[in-house]
Write the structure tokens for this entry.
Amino acid sequence: MTLPDFIDSRPVSRYQYIVIALCGVVMFIDGFDTQSISYMAPHIAEEWGLSKQVLGPVFSAALAGLMVGYLALSPLSERYGHRRMILTSTVIFALGTLAAAWSQNVTELMALRFITGMGLGAAAPSAIALTGEFSPKRLRATFVLVIYCGFSLGFVAAGLVSGWLIPILGWRSVLVVGAVAPLLLLPALLRYLPDSLNFMINRGAEPNRIQAIFRKMDPALAVGPDITYEAEKRTDGQRTALRSLFTRDRVLGTLLLWLVFVINLGEFYALQSWLPSIMTSLDYDMGTVVTATTLTTVGGIAAAFVTGPCMDRLGAYVTLGTVYVVGFAFVALTGVAFTAPLWVLLTANFFAGVCISGGQKSLIALSAVFYPTPMRSTGVGWALGVGRLGGIVGPIAVGAALGMGWSASAVFYAMSVPMLVAGAAVFLLGRWVRSDNHPDRKSAESHSLARK
């Protein structure tokens, strides 16, 4: 019994939906924890007497931990399994968040946010990989996109919870909520979350354990002691897969993808980290701040329902490149809108979110199309990890600009320029992939047809 064929040839079962939903909840908590610091930051600065320049490293501490988790810890799932990695990482970021609620200075807070980020960074790739494994090929991109919407919904929840709790109980209460939620999720993960079938088959797990998971996906399946199980073919380990990203026929595409990931994540975290503080300094009330920041996330979720079909029908590279060029206009418009009526600012925030947050989700799907199956997890994981460099530098750069006296409008004018660079890089990558001598041209076309 071959695992990929079994899943691809059957309707999606209730059990598969449960597995994917649990992975989505993990991503939801990841998004909540990542974004909540942005709403706490002005209150932390007020309580501890901090300057804006100091807040930049506080924002970036968890992002640095995320990068370490993506690059160094996530490969451990090949040795210990996705289930164990998700469970262990959930405990790590829950306890790190809880400890941060009792931090007394910036150094303690940054160290604990770094540890929390490591846990989050290790959990997310395993959740994505497990979702992909339990999804049929015809729906794999859709389900991965869905759990990333869970990440964005976590951003929305962070704004709602912060707006409700901080005025009543203070900023530390948000950290307590962010720690209790994953601890409450643990029993469900322990009971319902399976391990990777590929991992179990390759490691020679007991056939009864493997059969039990197959039967959960298809209760009518006939099983017996004479049935053997075959996992999907894979590469000869992480080093071989990593080196294959830099072969002569792939190195340009890898570097272009990394550049776009750096830009997109830099824009994303700079926007989400600093927009609440910038609007608070401009005397907007807390409700308006939460609404504006939430709209950028809602825009990213709404984009998923548009960019996905467009990538299938019009082409992945043309669609995403256009999204970034349009994003240039709306990020710049946000800078103008700080002196315009509120509805203009909220509209600009929404469409900036469509292009930045929605662009990030689409970029992950694009990288999954670009890299073939044997190196897909390594290619996507390392693109996310390298992209975190942008996530680290972006908030620090905006904090430095504000510290030098830049206006909010000037900051957003400057932020709009990299969006054009990202758009040009995607168009260039698409032209390179479409060239007749590129080895991925046929595989990319067949993947698109399979999704249709």
